Amino acid sequence: MSRYRPPRTAGTPLITPEGEARLRAELHELWHVRRPEVTRSVSEAAAQGDRSENAEYTYGKKMLREIDSRVRFLSKRLENLKVVDSRPADPQKVYFGAWVSLEDEDGNASRYRIVGPDELDLKLNLISIDSPLARALIGKGLDAEITVQAPTGEKHWYIVAIDYH
After folding, report:
1. Residues 6+ apart with CB under 8 A from 105
2. Residue 37: helix, strand or coil by DSSP?
3. Phi and psi of 48, rounded to 5°?
4. Scanning 69, 83, 121, 151, which has the fewest C-beta atoms within 10 Å of its C-beta?
């Protein structure tokens, strides 16, 4: 069986200003802090002699490859992203960057922000614009009912509030 996996699609090339700042901070941290530290430790491990059985050297080289891979990805991705920092013409409808308060059929409330795929973080209630829920919300107004096909069956929500910070 082959280990080949087709490349993952990059997703929608939109990002909020906060998300771009986080990606740039990660890129800076990797390139200016982590990489020099790992390079220094690899150099020290290489100076110890036999590299074939030197776990610190092998691990350090692996870490460098991972850091370089992530730096390449972030550099290319940041070039292609479009920062959306303006409010939409109609703030009464859900668009990219909106905080949306929802209520389900049982009266349970939840609040999500629609962001780019690079910013996805469910702990902070940030959902990707490419997600089924966000796709169902885009363009809808207050009090609209949305239906999303979930693994457990259809889910229904009502839009209670829309906010743009």
Report:
1. 156
2. helix
3. -75, -10
4. 151
Tokens of 153: 């069956």
What is the pTM assigned to this prediction?
0.82
The band of 7, judged by pLDDT with boundaries at 50, 70 and 90, is: low
CATH 1.10.287.180 assigned to domain 14-83? The reply is yes
Residue 39 structure tokens:
């390079």
Q: Does an H or E element contain 69, and which? A: helix 55-80
Residue 117: how many other CB atoms lie within 10 Å = 19
Q: What is the pLDDT of residues 40-75, one digit of tens each?
A: 999 998 888 777 788 899 999 999 999 999 999 999
Same CATH topology for 14-83 and 93-163: the answer is: no
